Amino acid sequence: LSLSMRMATVRAHLLLAVAISLIHRYALDFALPLFGRSSNVPWQLQITSRESRILRRSEETPSPPNSAKVMVQQAADSVVKAYADGINRQSVQLRLDIVCPPNRVIESGMEALLSAALPMAKAFTQSLSSPGGAPLKEVRVSRFDPVGTTSGDVGTLLYRISEDPKQDVAVVFLGGRKFVLQDSDAFINGMKSRLVVMLNSEDAATTFRLENKGQEVSAGGNFGKDVKILGKFCEEFREETYYLRLLLLSDWPVLIFRAYPNKWEVYLEALDGDVVRLLYGSRKPLPEEILQEIAKYEEESGITNADKMAKIQSR
Prior knowledge:
Number of strands: 9
Order of helices and strands: HHEHHEEEHEHEEEEHH
Structural class: alpha/beta
Largest sheet: 9 strands, mixed
Distance between the termini: 31 Å
Strand content: 15-25%
Protein backbone atom coordinates (compact mmCIF):
# COMPACT_ATOMS: atom_id res chain seq x y z
CA LEU A 1 0.00 0.00 0.00
CA SER A 2 1.10 3.55 -0.68
CA LEU A 3 1.84 5.91 2.19
CA SER A 4 -1.33 7.92 1.48
CA MET A 5 -3.48 4.78 1.52
CA ARG A 6 -1.88 3.59 4.77
CA MET A 7 -2.52 7.01 6.35
CA ALA A 8 -6.15 6.93 5.18
CA THR A 9 -6.58 3.47 6.71
CA VAL A 10 -5.09 4.59 10.01
CA ARG A 11 -7.35 7.66 10.09
CA ALA A 12 -10.43 5.50 9.38
CA HIS A 13 -9.54 3.18 12.27
CA LEU A 14 -8.91 6.18 14.51
CA LEU A 15 -12.29 7.74 13.66
CA LEU A 16 -14.08 4.42 14.31
CA ALA A 17 -12.45 4.16 17.72
CA VAL A 18 -13.29 7.79 18.45
CA ALA A 19 -16.92 7.25 17.37
CA ILE A 20 -17.33 4.30 19.74
CA SER A 21 -15.66 6.13 22.61
CA LEU A 22 -17.76 9.27 22.03
CA ILE A 23 -21.04 7.37 21.92
CA HIS A 24 -20.01 5.45 25.06
CA ARG A 25 -19.05 8.66 26.82
CA TYR A 26 -22.34 10.39 26.07
CA ALA A 27 -24.29 7.31 27.10
CA LEU A 28 -22.78 7.73 30.56
CA ASP A 29 -22.82 11.54 30.60
CA PHE A 30 -26.56 11.63 29.91
CA ALA A 31 -27.66 15.11 31.01
CA LEU A 32 -30.34 17.47 29.69
CA PRO A 33 -30.71 17.67 26.83
CA LEU A 34 -27.61 15.86 25.62
CA PHE A 35 -24.49 17.02 27.41
CA GLY A 36 -23.49 18.22 30.83
CA ARG A 37 -23.35 21.96 30.11
CA SER A 38 -26.80 22.23 28.61
CA SER A 39 -29.02 22.86 31.62
CA ASN A 40 -28.91 26.65 31.26
CA VAL A 41 -29.35 26.74 27.50
CA PRO A 42 -32.50 28.69 26.43
CA TRP A 43 -34.57 27.63 23.41
CA GLN A 44 -36.93 28.86 20.71
CA LEU A 45 -39.50 27.28 18.41
CA GLN A 46 -38.13 28.15 14.96
CA ILE A 47 -34.61 28.29 13.53
CA THR A 48 -33.92 31.16 11.13
CA SER A 49 -30.29 32.16 11.70
CA ARG A 50 -27.16 31.36 13.66
CA GLU A 51 -28.23 33.70 16.48
CA SER A 52 -31.68 32.11 16.76
CA ARG A 53 -30.45 28.55 17.17
CA ILE A 54 -30.19 28.99 20.92
CA LEU A 55 -33.21 30.92 22.29
CA ARG A 56 -36.09 30.28 24.69
CA ARG A 57 -38.01 27.00 24.87
CA SER A 58 -41.67 26.56 25.84
CA GLU A 59 -42.19 24.78 29.16
CA GLU A 60 -45.00 22.71 27.63
CA THR A 61 -42.63 21.10 25.15
CA PRO A 62 -40.79 18.09 26.63
CA SER A 63 -37.02 18.25 26.71
CA PRO A 64 -34.73 15.34 25.85
CA PRO A 65 -34.51 13.22 29.02
CA ASN A 66 -31.75 13.41 31.63
CA SER A 67 -31.94 9.75 32.70
CA ALA A 68 -33.04 6.34 31.47
CA LYS A 69 -35.98 6.44 33.90
CA VAL A 70 -37.22 9.75 32.49
CA MET A 71 -36.75 8.47 28.93
CA VAL A 72 -38.87 5.38 29.59
CA GLN A 73 -41.63 7.44 31.20
CA GLN A 74 -41.61 10.01 28.38
CA ALA A 75 -41.87 7.20 25.84
CA ALA A 76 -44.75 5.53 27.68
CA ASP A 77 -46.60 8.84 28.06
CA SER A 78 -46.19 9.55 24.33
CA VAL A 79 -47.51 6.12 23.37
CA VAL A 80 -50.53 6.43 25.68
CA LYS A 81 -51.37 9.89 24.27
CA ALA A 82 -51.18 8.60 20.71
CA TYR A 83 -53.32 5.57 21.56
CA ALA A 84 -55.94 7.88 23.07
CA ASP A 85 -55.91 9.68 19.70
CA GLY A 86 -56.73 6.42 17.92
CA ILE A 87 -53.23 5.31 16.89
CA ASN A 88 -52.98 1.62 17.81
CA ARG A 89 -49.90 0.74 15.73
CA GLN A 90 -46.81 2.65 16.83
CA SER A 91 -43.03 2.62 16.69
CA VAL A 92 -40.69 3.70 19.48
CA GLN A 93 -36.91 4.13 19.57
CA LEU A 94 -35.15 4.26 22.95
CA ARG A 95 -31.44 4.88 23.49
CA LEU A 96 -30.17 1.39 24.23
CA ASP A 97 -26.58 2.65 24.42
CA ILE A 98 -27.42 3.94 27.90
CA VAL A 99 -27.57 0.36 29.19
CA CYS A 100 -25.37 -1.38 26.61
CA PRO A 101 -22.44 0.57 25.07
CA PRO A 102 -21.92 -0.04 21.33
CA ASN A 103 -18.51 -1.64 21.87
CA ARG A 104 -20.16 -4.35 23.96
CA VAL A 105 -22.54 -5.18 21.11
CA ILE A 106 -19.60 -5.33 18.69
CA GLU A 107 -17.64 -7.62 21.01
CA SER A 108 -20.44 -9.83 22.39
CA GLY A 109 -23.25 -9.63 19.84
CA MET A 110 -27.00 -9.14 19.95
CA GLU A 111 -27.55 -11.50 22.87
CA ALA A 112 -25.56 -9.08 25.05
CA LEU A 113 -27.74 -6.20 23.86
CA LEU A 114 -30.94 -8.10 24.65
CA SER A 115 -29.69 -9.13 28.09
CA ALA A 116 -28.71 -5.55 29.01
CA ALA A 117 -31.75 -3.79 27.55
CA LEU A 118 -34.60 -6.20 28.33
CA PRO A 119 -35.24 -4.80 31.85
CA MET A 120 -35.68 -1.33 30.33
CA ALA A 121 -38.04 -2.71 27.68
CA LYS A 122 -40.05 -4.43 30.40
CA ALA A 123 -40.26 -1.22 32.46
CA PHE A 124 -41.54 0.57 29.36
CA THR A 125 -44.18 -2.11 28.76
CA GLN A 126 -45.34 -2.01 32.37
CA SER A 127 -45.80 1.77 32.11
CA LEU A 128 -48.27 1.57 29.19
CA SER A 129 -51.28 2.24 31.35
CA SER A 130 -54.08 4.54 30.19
CA PRO A 131 -55.72 6.84 32.76
CA GLY A 132 -58.65 4.95 34.25
CA GLY A 133 -57.63 1.78 32.43
CA ALA A 134 -57.74 -1.77 33.73
CA PRO A 135 -55.03 -2.72 36.26
CA LEU A 136 -51.93 -4.59 35.09
CA LYS A 137 -51.82 -8.30 35.86
CA GLU A 138 -48.39 -9.22 34.46
CA VAL A 139 -45.96 -8.81 31.59
CA ARG A 140 -45.08 -12.06 29.84
CA VAL A 141 -41.79 -12.22 27.96
CA SER A 142 -41.14 -14.70 25.14
CA ARG A 143 -38.55 -15.00 22.38
CA PHE A 144 -39.78 -15.44 18.83
CA ASP A 145 -36.21 -15.46 17.46
CA PRO A 146 -34.48 -18.47 19.06
CA VAL A 147 -30.91 -18.33 20.32
CA GLY A 148 -28.46 -18.83 17.49
CA THR A 149 -30.83 -17.94 14.65
CA THR A 150 -28.89 -17.40 11.44
CA SER A 151 -30.22 -13.86 10.99
CA GLY A 152 -28.70 -12.81 14.31
CA ASP A 153 -32.05 -11.39 15.43
CA VAL A 154 -33.08 -11.61 19.08
CA GLY A 155 -36.69 -10.49 18.63
CA THR A 156 -38.68 -10.67 21.85
CA LEU A 157 -42.37 -10.21 22.61
CA LEU A 158 -43.39 -8.44 25.81
CA TYR A 159 -47.12 -8.95 26.32
CA ARG A 160 -48.83 -6.71 28.85
CA ILE A 161 -51.82 -8.54 30.31
CA SER A 162 -54.55 -6.41 31.86
CA GLU A 163 -57.58 -7.44 33.88
CA ASP A 164 -59.59 -6.43 30.81
CA PRO A 165 -58.28 -8.49 27.85
CA LYS A 166 -59.34 -5.76 25.43
CA GLN A 167 -56.69 -3.52 27.00
CA ASP A 168 -53.80 -5.96 26.53
CA VAL A 169 -50.72 -4.50 24.84
CA ALA A 170 -48.02 -6.15 22.70
CA VAL A 171 -44.50 -4.72 22.53
CA VAL A 172 -42.21 -6.28 19.92
CA PHE A 173 -38.65 -5.58 21.07
CA LEU A 174 -35.75 -5.73 18.59
CA GLY A 175 -37.97 -7.29 15.94
CA GLY A 176 -36.30 -7.12 12.55
CA ARG A 177 -37.17 -7.88 8.95
CA LYS A 178 -37.41 -11.60 9.74
CA PHE A 179 -40.27 -10.94 12.17
CA VAL A 180 -42.09 -8.76 9.66
CA LEU A 181 -41.73 -11.14 6.73
CA GLN A 182 -42.34 -14.45 8.54
CA ASP A 183 -44.17 -13.94 11.82
CA SER A 184 -46.03 -10.65 11.92
CA ASP A 185 -49.16 -10.90 9.80
CA ALA A 186 -51.28 -13.36 11.79
CA PHE A 187 -50.11 -11.93 15.10
CA ILE A 188 -50.81 -8.28 14.22
CA ASN A 189 -54.23 -9.16 12.81
CA GLY A 190 -55.02 -11.14 15.95
CA MET A 191 -54.38 -8.08 18.11
CA LYS A 192 -57.28 -6.32 16.34
CA SER A 193 -57.68 -2.82 17.88
CA ARG A 194 -55.32 -3.51 20.78
CA LEU A 195 -52.12 -1.48 21.01
CA VAL A 196 -49.03 -2.91 19.31
CA VAL A 197 -45.64 -1.17 19.63
CA MET A 198 -42.52 -1.92 17.60
CA LEU A 199 -39.69 -1.11 20.01
CA ASN A 200 -36.19 -0.43 18.65
CA SER A 201 -36.55 -2.15 15.29
CA GLU A 202 -33.69 0.08 14.07
CA ASP A 203 -31.41 -1.80 16.48
CA ALA A 204 -32.42 -5.29 15.28
CA ALA A 205 -29.81 -7.44 13.54
CA THR A 206 -31.95 -7.37 10.37
CA THR A 207 -32.70 -3.71 10.88
CA PHE A 208 -35.11 -1.62 8.86
CA ARG A 209 -36.21 2.00 8.92
CA LEU A 210 -39.83 3.01 8.43
CA GLU A 211 -38.97 5.86 6.08
CA ASN A 212 -37.31 3.40 3.65
CA LYS A 213 -40.70 1.74 3.04
CA GLY A 214 -39.35 -1.78 2.62
CA GLN A 215 -36.33 -1.04 0.44
CA GLU A 216 -33.95 -2.94 2.78
CA VAL A 217 -34.98 -6.25 1.22
CA SER A 218 -34.14 -7.53 -2.24
CA ALA A 219 -36.57 -6.41 -4.92
CA GLY A 220 -36.70 -10.00 -6.18
CA GLY A 221 -37.07 -11.64 -2.77
CA ASN A 222 -40.05 -13.99 -2.55
CA PHE A 223 -40.89 -13.08 -6.16
CA GLY A 224 -41.08 -9.40 -5.24
CA LYS A 225 -43.51 -9.93 -2.38
CA ASP A 226 -41.03 -9.12 0.43
CA VAL A 227 -40.71 -5.46 -0.54
CA LYS A 228 -44.49 -5.12 -0.57
CA ILE A 229 -44.90 -6.90 2.78
CA LEU A 230 -42.24 -4.81 4.52
CA GLY A 231 -43.48 -1.63 2.84
CA LYS A 232 -47.04 -2.29 4.02
CA PHE A 233 -45.78 -2.97 7.54
CA CYS A 234 -43.78 0.27 7.56
CA GLU A 235 -46.89 2.17 6.51
CA GLU A 236 -48.94 0.54 9.28
CA PHE A 237 -46.36 1.41 11.96
CA ARG A 238 -45.29 4.74 10.45
CA GLU A 239 -46.20 6.79 13.55
CA GLU A 240 -42.95 7.08 15.53
CA THR A 241 -44.47 8.36 18.75
CA TYR A 242 -41.17 8.48 20.65
CA TYR A 243 -37.69 8.64 19.19
CA LEU A 244 -34.35 9.25 20.88
CA ARG A 245 -31.14 8.36 19.09
CA LEU A 246 -27.52 9.50 19.36
CA LEU A 247 -25.48 9.44 16.16
CA LEU A 248 -22.05 10.58 15.05
CA LEU A 249 -22.36 12.61 11.84
CA SER A 250 -19.50 14.52 10.24
CA ASP A 251 -17.53 14.05 13.50
CA TRP A 252 -20.35 15.67 15.54
CA PRO A 253 -22.39 13.87 18.24
CA VAL A 254 -25.99 14.46 17.13
CA LEU A 255 -29.18 13.73 19.07
CA ILE A 256 -32.54 13.16 17.31
CA PHE A 257 -35.59 13.57 19.54
CA ARG A 258 -39.35 13.38 19.19
CA ALA A 259 -42.14 12.87 21.76
CA TYR A 260 -45.71 12.68 20.45
CA PRO A 261 -47.54 14.92 19.67
CA ASN A 262 -44.60 17.33 19.43
CA LYS A 263 -42.32 17.91 16.47
CA TRP A 264 -38.94 16.42 15.64
CA GLU A 265 -35.77 18.09 16.91
CA VAL A 266 -32.06 17.61 16.21
CA TYR A 267 -29.29 18.80 18.53
CA LEU A 268 -25.50 18.82 18.54
CA GLU A 269 -22.85 19.87 21.02
CA ALA A 270 -20.93 23.00 20.01
CA LEU A 271 -17.16 23.20 20.37
CA ASP A 272 -17.58 25.22 23.57
CA GLY A 273 -19.84 22.55 25.09
CA ASP A 274 -23.14 24.40 24.64
CA VAL A 275 -26.03 22.60 22.96
CA VAL A 276 -27.33 23.79 19.59
CA ARG A 277 -30.63 22.83 18.03
CA LEU A 278 -30.10 22.28 14.31
CA LEU A 279 -33.55 21.26 13.10
CA TYR A 280 -37.18 21.45 14.17
CA GLY A 281 -39.95 20.09 12.00
CA SER A 282 -43.08 17.99 11.53
CA ARG A 283 -41.35 14.94 10.06
CA LYS A 284 -38.33 12.78 10.79
CA PRO A 285 -35.21 14.35 9.23
CA LEU A 286 -33.14 12.29 6.84
CA PRO A 287 -29.39 11.86 7.54
CA GLU A 288 -28.50 13.89 4.46
CA GLU A 289 -30.72 16.73 5.68
CA ILE A 290 -28.94 16.73 9.04
CA LEU A 291 -25.57 16.74 7.28
CA GLN A 292 -26.66 19.72 5.19
CA GLU A 293 -27.66 21.60 8.33
CA ILE A 294 -24.35 20.69 10.01
CA ALA A 295 -22.50 22.10 6.99
CA LYS A 296 -24.51 25.34 7.29
CA TYR A 297 -23.77 25.54 11.00
CA GLU A 298 -20.05 25.01 10.43
CA GLU A 299 -20.01 27.73 7.77
CA GLU A 300 -21.99 30.16 9.93
CA SER A 301 -19.71 29.51 12.90
CA GLY A 302 -16.45 29.47 10.95
CA ILE A 303 -15.62 25.93 12.12
CA THR A 304 -12.89 24.08 10.24
CA ASN A 305 -11.95 20.41 10.15
CA ALA A 306 -8.90 21.31 12.20
CA ASP A 307 -11.18 22.76 14.88
CA LYS A 308 -13.20 19.54 15.01
CA MET A 309 -10.14 17.32 15.15
CA ALA A 310 -8.69 19.43 17.96
CA LYS A 311 -11.94 18.95 19.89
CA ILE A 312 -11.88 15.19 19.33
CA GLN A 313 -8.25 14.90 20.43
CA SER A 314 -8.99 16.88 23.60
CA ARG A 315 -11.64 14.40 24.82
